[in-house]
Specification:
Layout: H1 2-24, E1 25-29, H2 35-51, H3 64-72, E2 76-81, E3 86-93, E4 104-105, E5 115-123, H4 132-146, E6 151-156, H5 161-169, E7 173-179, E8 185-192
Parallel strand pairs: 5-6
Antiparallel strand pairs: 1-2, 2-3, 3-5, 4-7, 6-8, 7-8
């Protein structure tokens, strides 16, 4: 009986947490007026990666030009608090990612399958480890389901253990290694949307 009660309490806590999180945060399209705030958050993420000896985003990328291109392509998003404070950013697209064409390994879905992709995701220091990254994934996956797109693909640096841990927690499957345009290698993951 105690075990059943504990399960009910855990489920209630999960549902309440999900409700609060969705109520407190919004996932919005970026406008040009948000550009400098996004660059600031990207800068914080670059510093965080540097402090943790992760050789990712240490060559001046992503820069203002890349973010502006995402905005122009209607693929840039911000995450805001209820008070409209920007606490995170991400690029989300359903266009094919050129660097995913070749993989040392195998994607779950076929090479001609339509998929979503998340890039340039960053969270401001004050809201790190508060569920913002998970919220971004949930919102992007929700858009895929609404558009009947069957999978999400993403890549991360081999030393970015925090992102790898999050991906596994969110049921992403490791598929192999891809190469960026500059030759750097990244670990590739994919998740199939289960309720299509």
């Amino acid at each position: 009986m105690t075990s059943k009660k504990a399960k009910v309490n855990t489920l209630a806590f999960f549902c309440l947490n999900l409700f609060i999180k969705n109520w407190l945060m919004e996932f919005l399209k970026t406008s040009r007026k948000n550009l400098q705030q996004i660059i600031k958050i990207i800068g914080e993420a670059q510093e965080y990666l540097l402090i943790h000896n992760i050789d990712q985003w240490q060559n001046g990328y992503p820069n203002e030009e890349a973010i502006l291109r995402d905005i122009i392509n209607n693929e840039s998003y911000i995450i805001t608090t209820k008070e409209s404070i920007i606490i995170g950013t991400a690029m989300f697209s359903t266009k094919k990612e050129p660097t995913y064409k070749s993989i040392e390994g195998q994607w779950i879905t076929k090479s001609d399958a339509k998929y979503g992709v998340i890039h340039r995701m960053a969270v401001t220091n004050n809201f790190r480890k508060k569920g913002v990254a998970k919220f971004i994934f949930e919102k992007c996956e929700q858009q895929l389901r609404q558009n009947e797109i069957m999978s999400m693909r993403i890549d991360t640096h081999e030393d970015n253990l925090a992102m790898q841990g999050l991906l596994l927690k969110l049921k992403y499957i490791y598929c192999g290694v891809i190469c960026l345009e500059n030759g750097d290698k990244r670990l590739a993951y994919e998740k199939c949307m289960s309720n299509l």
